[in-house]
Design a protein that fits this description.
Layout lengths: L3 H14 L6 E3 L18 E5 L2 E6 L2 E6 L5 E6 L11 E7 L2 E6 L3 E5 L1 H10 L12 H11 L5 H6 L9 H10 L13 H21 L15 H4 L18 E5 L2 E5 L6
Antiparallel strand pairs: 1-6, 2-3, 3-4, 4-8, 5-7, 6-7, 9-10
This protein binds zinc ion.
The site of zinc ion has 7 residues, from loops.
């Protein structure tokens, strides 16, 4: 599943290529029946919050959540757009460019009130500007009051928006934190350092498109296997203590960690 940095990259692409232009919106597959409500209007802004994307066409807003299978593809063309391939839920067209959306969990037109409601349900996003540390405060409040494990909390979009399985595993490892510790048992300073670490790491993802979480490997384009401390490294040696990295299923998602480093 794409993590927040991917969605922020998509928002950046929409802002640079589609913003300020009248966009034809169609649904080649037919399932996005609300496309007529926005088609032909000017895209005024694209905004990401966590894993959700909001495309503003004046007062009408398209809310998109990719979920597990959703994908975007962007194409340039000279005169006529190429025929859609596969199940394209929504196609966004401007002269010479198009964006195809396939397989999202959500793609719907909402209004300003519904937007506010959607945003209220989401926790703070480490990739958003944090005015006076309000987002950090909200994260601390939510995480520190919960008896759920910190590993579950970091995947909970109402606690922190945009973190997925890769960043979750890597943030916990970098904090040398036991993933099963309840949020309320994690010292506030440590929760704060996780938030700050997410604010440090996730922009690298937005910039490069890669989730690079190892210090010293943050340049160039390292192999996938070299990018992480623990994610998808079950059975391999920990890079720091040479103990074994393990995988456990927690709340139906795979959790990778080093039991020796993360006591
Ligand atoms: Zn270790």
């Amino acid at each position: 599943m794409p993590e927040g940095h991917t969605v922020h990259r998509i928002a950046n692409t929409f802002n640079s290529d589609f913003c300020g232009k009248k966009v034809k919106v169609v649904s080649p597959q037919g399932r996005f029946t609300q496309s007529e409500l926005v088609s032909g209007k000017k895209l005024t802004e694209a905004k990401a919050h966590g894993k959700q994307l909001f495309l503003h066409f004046g007062k009408a807003i398209i809310r998109i959540h990719l979920g597990i299978y959703g994908k975007w593809s962007f194409q340039q063309f000279s005169t006529t757009p190429p025929d859609p391939v596969g199940e394209v839920r929504a196609r966004f067209l401007i002269p010479n460019k198009l964006a195809d959306l396939r397989g999202p969990t959500a793609c719907e037109v909402i209004d300003e009130n519904q937007l506010q409601e959607a945003l209220r349900k989401l926790g703070p996003d480490p990739l958003a500007k944090d005015h006076q540390g309000k987002n950090l405060e909200r994260f601390l409040e939510k995480a520190h009051s919960s008896s759920r494990s910190i590993a579950e909390l970091l995947m909970n979009q109402s606690v922190i928006a945009g973190v997925g399985n890769v960043y979750r595993a890597e943030l916990l490892y970098r904090a040398r934190l036991n993933p099963f510790l309840a949020g309320k048992k994690v010292p506030k300073e440590l929760l704060e350092s996780i938030w700050l670490d997410a604010q440090r790491l996730m922009p690298i993802g937005v910039r490069t498109g890669m989730m690079l979480t190892r210090e010293g490997y943050l340049k160039g384009k390292p192999e996938l296997a070299d990018r992480y401390y623990v994610y998808k490294r079950a059975g391999e040696r920990c890079r720091e203590c040479s103990g074994k990295v393990v995988m456990e299923v927690l709340a139906a998602r795979k959790l990778y960690f080093c039991p020796r480093c993360q006591k």
